[in-house]
Structure formats: C-alpha cells, structure tokens
Amino acid sequence: MNRLEQLNFDNTFASLPDSFHSRLSPTPLPDPYLVSFNTNAAQLIDLDSAEAARPDFAEHFTGNRLLPGAEPLSMLYAGHQFGHFVPQLGDGRAILLGEVRNRSGELWDVQLKGAGVTPYSRDGDGRAVLRSSIREYLCSEAMHGLGIPTSRALCITGSDEEVYRERIETAAVLTRLAPSHVRFGSFEVFFSRGQHDQIATLADYVIARHFPHLAGDNDKYQLFLNEVTQRTAKLMAQWQAVGFSHGVMNTDNMSILGLTFDYGPFGFMEGYDPGYICNHSDPRGRYAYDQQPQIGLWNLACLAQALSPLIEKQQAHEVLDGYAPAYHRHYAELMGAKLGLEKILDEDIQLIGSLLQIMHDSRTDYTNLFRGLGNFDSAPDAANETLRDQFIDRAAFDAWSSAYRVRLKQESCNDRERKARMDAVNPKYILRNYLAQNAIERAEKQRDFSEIDRLLALLARPFDEQTEMESYAAAPPDWARQIEVSCSS
Ligand code: AMP
Ligand code: MG
Questions:
Q1: Residue 397 near residue 391, CB atoms below 8 Å
Q2: pTM for the full predicted model
Q3: Residues 6+ apart with CB under 8 A from 56
Q4: Is 370:338 a contact under the CB 8 Å cutoff?
Q5: Catalytic residue list contains 252
Q6: pLDDT in tens, 113-143
Q7: pLDDT digits (tens, 9 = 90+) for 415-433
Q8: Are 149 and 26 in contact (CB under 8 A)?
Q9: Which residue in the list 31, 48, 56, 252 is annotated as catalytic?
Q10: DSSP per residue over 219-269, as a string?
Q11: CB 262 near ligand 1, within 6 Å
Q12: Nearest by Cα to 221 from 300, 301, 298, 304
C-alpha cells in the first residue's frame, strides 16, 4: 500500500490531443478539513488508509497541493439536457488529477469534484456543496454495495468557504474514482462540430483502454456501440429492480462503461409509484422512474448518431434493436430473483406485474416489501399477516399470494432456502433520503461527520441483517416528506 507521494499515476487521457481537454490547476479552498474517508475505495488505487491521518491529506484532496504525477485537466463534452442539445458543456467543476494504475494493472481516474472554475464553468462557480457531496459519496458506495456498476468515492474534504445556492452553504470536494469518465456527450461534442477524425480518435482510445478485445475487429465501432448498448440495458434493469431513480439522465451523465455516475437529485423509491420523480426540477417527469428504460435507449440513439461517421446506419439500427430484448431479459431475471424463483417462466412477468399493481395501489414500501417477502410462508393455510398488513386492499393481497403459492409449488426449494436466496438480492438497507438528510444536518450544524461514516459502513453490506442498525431500515418518518431534492448541488 502506497503513501500519497507513491501513487502510480499513468495518465492516458492527458496524452490525447489538446482538443479533448483543458489543462488547469484546481482553485485552492481555505483551511480544508477531512469530512470522510473510504478505506474500501482507497484499496482500488493502492492507497494506504493510514495516509488519511496526515495533516496535509485534505490539502491534497481539495487540490490545494498537487500530488506528484498528477496532470490536472477538465474534460470536454456536450450533451442532450432534458431533450435539448447543448453544444458545449465539459467539466464545469470537476478536475481529473490523472489515472492511477494499481497492482492488478487496473487504471482508475482520480477526479476532484468541486475543485473550482474551469473553462467549461459557464455561469457556475466551480464548487460543490457539502450537502450534495455527502449524497453522492454515500449513494455511489451504496450502489456498489448493491452490486450495481458505479463510480466510487474516495473521500470528501470540506472548507468553511461559503457557496451560494438556494441558501448559503459551504464548499466541499468529492474525490471520485472511476475506470473512465468518458460519456455519451464526449462523442456528441465532436459530431456537432463536424470533427469526425476526433470521433475516431476518441473511439479508438476508449476501445484500446476499455474494450481491447474489439481492437482488431473490422467492425470494432459497431461492436463498441453494442457493448455500450448492452451494458446500458443491464444497468437500467438494475436501477429498476432496486427502485433507483437517477434524476438527470442527460447524455452528458451517461457513462460509456454503463456505470451509474454524476449523482445529482437521485432517489430510491419508497412507497411504490412507477411515476416517481425524484428531482424537484423535473416537474414534467422526463426522468421519472418508469421512463428510465426508454430514456436509456433515447440516449443510446444520441450516441449512435455521434458515432454515425464510423458505423453504417443499418448496423447501428441493428445494435439499438438489441436494447429492448436485453433490457427485458435482465429485468425479468432480476425481478424473478426478487421473488425467489429459480427459473423464470414467461408467465412470471405477469406475477411480478400484479404484485407491483397492488403495491402501487397501497404505496407499499418497495424495499421493505421485497425484503419481507423472503419470509413468505407458502403453507396452504398461512395468512402471512405481516405482509398482508402492508396492503390497503387485503383481498387483493390474498389473491396475489394464492397465485404466488401455486407458482412456488413448481420450484424445488423449500421456504428456508428460498429466503436465503431472496435475502441475497433484496436489500434490507438503501440510502433513503431521510437517512442522508440526518447525516447532512449533523455535518452542517454540528460539524459531526460520524453519521456519514455510520451510513457508509451500513450501506457497504445492504443485504446483511445488522441488528443494531434495525431502525435504519424503517420507512420514512413524516418529516421526510418535506425533503426536496433538486438539480442545485
Ligand atoms: P450535472 O447535470 O450536474 O452533471 O451538470 C451539468 C453541467 O453543469 C456539467 O457540465 C457540470 O460540470 C456543470 N456544473 C454543474 N454545477 C456547476 C457549478 N457549480 N459550477 C460550474 N459548472 C457546474
Ligand atoms: Mg454531469
């Protein structure tokens, strides 16, 4: 494990031509302090966790001091925002320090989010507030704990420097790790400018670094689009199955590796409602929960257009046609597993649909209902009261549970084995808005960061019973209804 000075930087993105990025230095923040440090993520870059105790640690991860080997830059990209093309975006407040190669040979981007203005800041201040940094830090690690591809979070540093949003808040820097921060919009920017050679340069770079098995193929660009399509389809199924809503699925927030990233106003669904909108700034619900799978495809069509100078139209269509079947296959598999089924039959999608319908009618807590279903007693006379009580229309639940019981009869395993399988896929703990809010308020008002660390540890093991943390699985208290999450971050 390495000291800060020994991190093994090997900066491949910085070696691309200047048209792909802008070199710059982070803008220092006064008197930075460490808010939270994530030892699990530190291992990804071979960083010795003891380094977090160094007095100059926070200086390095606000960007006040530069790590040896870093070549800081902001990445250029464009994007479709809420359906409208914005020709130039780019990292307006994120600075890529460089890529660290770990002992296993993996390269990890080390990026500071909130490290000051960049040539792409437009009217923004280049900063991130503590509140949203805590939310992203916790959610990216929660998603990782759930087994969903995501960027990771190494640490948060804070400063008392004031930042103006709807109210005065304080600045923070989130250090993000990811195998790549290239987005759909990274290609769109060159397509909109007619710079087709740059599209090929970027595609070749991405293929060489992330899809090397495609590099020698004559159809490599088509196969690359296919990989992104398949990964995105799977990611959307994973989001739907866990009840996650991203909130701002603009093409500049879509990873070419199919990672969840650029966490803004995300939310985990609580009472089941397919029309759930987690983002207060999206009143029309373009990015509502039930829209996500089709938006994933819409965004892929934007990527396909940006790659059109490299791929025949017909081939691109064929690739995109593979999205819906892949999505439905993954979704059926994931939902079938949530019901504890060993093998998914065509009819099972109806069993899932009818459960979701009665959950919708009762706004049943999505996470807790599925977790509780692991305790379903399949004996003919069992009442399953605890589950039944979560529905307003008890008769509707009884009808559904009869159908479920019949279906379980076709399976070979008993209730106990089924519960073990279900508990491994139905999380007990998710990052509920009220849990994040409690951590944020303690951090903001008392400069007490212990709740962040507690949630980080809890959410790293979301499927495990953690008896002393039982209360963290509770559905939201009434005050949580007032929490508003918007694009402001
Ligand atoms: P988002 O949808 O939050 O990922 O951000 C969309 C674009 O706005 C990206 O180019 C961001 O870098 C930029 N941006 C967001 N907040 C700020 C800020 N406070 N200062 C500068 N740029 C920002
Ligand atoms: Mg973004």
A1: yes
A2: 0.98
A3: 65
A4: yes
A5: yes
A6: 999 999 999 999 999 999 999 999 999 999 9
A7: 999 999 999 999 999 999 9
A8: no
A9: 252
A10: THHHHHHHHHHHHHHHHHHHHHHHTEE-S---GGG-BTT--B---SS-EE-
A11: yes
A12: 304
